[in-house]
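R.M. (postdoc): so does anyone remember the format we settled on? I'll just put the structure tokens first.
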């Protein structure tokens, strides 16, 4: 138990601040759509999903001289389309008629963009994504060891949102009790976060349900060569074909071919899918606009379908406002736990209580 306690303390002291910042950024990102509706014109517009509107918008956007490579379409909670370009940090918001509302060429231009870049990539691309995933695994181990260490002291449990006093003993007591109380949510958020960042971890979790090779094959795009993108492509017809293939599904993204010979890809979210942008796909020949392949997310292997739940559970994209508030509490609790872990550790890295020096009594001598 002593070794476990040392491991727990040193882990918290070394990565506690990183976990605290990830918890805080995650709690803020849960409310990204509400922030955009309050600050960006047309973000509160009602969603339009008819083929004519989407087709006219796509025609206008992709006809621009500096056309985007993909469009993430408006949702019920956010009435703007997001355009992504070939340049990594170039993006824009467009209204549902295709008019550019805001554009930027740096992640630092939009607060929710750089906040996501930190939370998911630690401002360091793929390398930061791996580090964040490892931090999530460390945080998961931190929660598990904390539960083990708390068990012998369970009869001393007290529900407090803040330490009774800002002294080490009171902070440690509060840290243990709050950690136990919020542990199920932390396990959920840390596990799903690590699974999204670390492919091997995700595959290991799903392996009992579906072999990794089977999941990889099910997610692979079709090996079909497309023609050159037609200048007069009928985007309304393209969108209508996708909607006919998946009746009642929400059209979520429209993407141009990434390279010569590639296909146009449209992602859709069926009602049974929790993932905001769905995993159902329809592919089209860029030269003719004819649908050449499709993929039903509901027919994917069980392991893949379970993996598709990671993001909506992690980012509170299901469950409405109640679940968003629950995940906000989880993020803020992680912020508090991580911060106080760092404070108590670096205030006394050894963990040995400091002994007070006895006060010397001065005895007056008789003259």
């Amino acid at each position: 138990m002593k070794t476990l306690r040392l491991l727990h303390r040193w882990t918290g002291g070394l990565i506690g601040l990183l976990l605290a910042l990830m918890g805080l950024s995650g709690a803020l990102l849960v409310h990204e759509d509400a922030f955009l509706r309050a600050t960006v014109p047309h973000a509160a517009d009602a969603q339009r999903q008819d083929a004519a509107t989407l087709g006219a918008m796509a025609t206008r956007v992709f006809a621009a001289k500096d056309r985007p490579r993909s469009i993430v379409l408006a949702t019920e909670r956010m009435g703007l389309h997001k355009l992504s370009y070939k340049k990594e940090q170039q993006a824009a918001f467009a209204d549902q008629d295709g008019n550019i509302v805001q554009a930027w060429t740096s992640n630092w231009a939009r607060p929710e963009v750089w906040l996501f870049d930190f939370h998911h990539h630690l401002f360091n691309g793929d390398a930061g994504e791996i580090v964040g995933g490892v931090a999530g695994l460390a945080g998961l181990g931190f929660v598990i060891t904390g539960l083990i260490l708390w068990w012998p002291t369970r009869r001393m449990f007290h529900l407090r949102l803040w330490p009774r006093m800002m002294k080490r003993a009171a902070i440690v007591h509060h840290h243990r009790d709050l950690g136990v109380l919020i542990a199920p949510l932390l396990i959920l958020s840390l596990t799903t976060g690590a699974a999204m960042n670390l492919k091997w971890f995700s595959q290991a979790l799903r392996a009992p349900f579906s072999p990794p090779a089977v999941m990889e094959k099910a997610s692979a795009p079709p090996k079909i060569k497309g023609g050159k993108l037609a200048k007069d492509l009928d985007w309304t017809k393209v969108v209508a074909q996708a909607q006919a293939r998946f009746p009642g599904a929400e059209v979520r993204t429209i993407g141009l071919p990434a390279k010569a010979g590639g296909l146009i890809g449209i992602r859709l979210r069926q009602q049974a899918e929790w993932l905001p942008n769905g995993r159902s796909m329809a592919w089209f020949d860029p030269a003719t606009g004819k649908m050449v392949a499709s993929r039903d997310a509901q027919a994917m292997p069980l392991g893949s379908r379970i993996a598709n739940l990671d993001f909506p559970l992690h980012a509170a994209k299901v469950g409405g406002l109640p679940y968003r508030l629950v995940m906000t509490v989880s993020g803020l609790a992680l912020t508090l736990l991580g911060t106080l872990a760092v404070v108590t550790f670096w205030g006394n890295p050894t963990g040995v209580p400091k002994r007070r020096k006895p006060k010397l009594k001065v005895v007056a001598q008789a003259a």
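R.M.: ...and that's the designed sequence above, right after the tokens. Also worth knowing: The mean pLDDT is 91. The two ends are 59 Å apart (CA to CA).
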